[in-house]
Amino acid sequence: MYQDDEKNAHLKKLDNASTNLQLFKADLLDYGALSSAISGCQGIFHVASPAPARDVSDPEKEILDPAVKGTLNVLKASKEAGARRVVHVSSILAISMHPNWPQDRVMDETCWSDKDFCLKDEHWYCLSKTLAESSALKYAQKIGLDLISVCPTLVIGPMLQPVVNGSNRVFIQFLKGTLIYARYPLTLRECCSWHGNPGHWKRHLLMLLSNFRKLVFLEGLSYLYTLSVCDSYYACTFF
Predict the structure, then answer these.
(1) How many structural domains compose the chain?
(2) Average pLDDT of 142-158?
(3) Which end of the chain is more exposed for a tag (fewer CB within 10 A), N or C?
(4) Whether residue 26 has pLDDT greater than 50
(5) CATH number at residue 77
């Protein structure tokens, strides 16, 4: 159990947190700590990935290893714990970073960001999300783990924490007019209801939107966990 009153005070104020919430401290590269936290869980939502707001001196140590090796550690621990399903939150940046992509060709669930381009231009976060997701899908198939991968764009909404996070900083720029191009996600439950039963599909769903939709991201992740059959599932939107 992890106790840090100042950092986690807002989480402890959630409904029924006193009885239903347990916090564990675990480094993504510390398999033992992850295994201890995951033990006994039936559903795992892996959302952690380093996203530094500054230049990094050692991208492999600070970004790539925690993203890739950390994700594989989570999957391994989930399999050993007998988890029913893992929902892995990837990113649109694992799909869209492709400078030579034809402008008249729509990106779909088969698209992957160009790893060589990300490496050359030092887009470390994009590279980490691409490597982490592709590695996760291969590893999950190898060990027989039920994995769903979600690729959201900009995740915004009411904040639980008392400080502004990276996504909401982008949204503030949009409201101030300092950012004229932005990508937004929509409710994953809405995506599923529009397109039938996603349980029969694998990696898919790239939506093109021209309007702003309300996001219920956590509800969407929970819904993906409850699907009876879904090998891997994308929910991506553009604005």
Answers:
(1) 1
(2) 81
(3) N
(4) yes
(5) 3.40.50.720
> Are 232 and 137 spatial neighbours (Cβ–Cβ below 8 Å)?
yes
User: Is 199 inside any structural domain?
Assistant: yes
Which single residue is written with the structure tokens 């950390």?
70
String of DSSP letters for 90-146: --GGGTS--TT--TTS---TT----HHHHHHTT-HHHHHHHHHHHHHHHHHHHHT--
Q: Judge whether 90 lies within some domain.
A: yes
Residues of the chain with pLDDT > 70: what percent? 70
- 100 residue type, one letter: N
Q: Which residue has the higher pLDDT, 144 or 160?
A: 144
Could you give the CA distance from residue 38 to residue 26 in angstroms, rounded to a whole number?
A: 10
| Residue 51 in domain | yes
Q: Are 205 and 147 in contact, with CB atoms under 8 Å apart?
A: no
Would you say how long the chain is, in residues?
A: 239
Domain housing 45: 5-232
Residues annotated as catalytic (active site), given as ranges:
129
User: Does 205 map to a domain?
Assistant: yes
Tens of pLDDT, residues 32-77 = 999 999 999 999 999 878 887 678 899 999 999 999 999 999 999 9
Classify 42 as helix, strand or coil.
Answer: coil
pLDDT at residue 149, rounded to an integer: 85
How many separate helices (H) and strands (E) can be counted in the chain? 10, 5
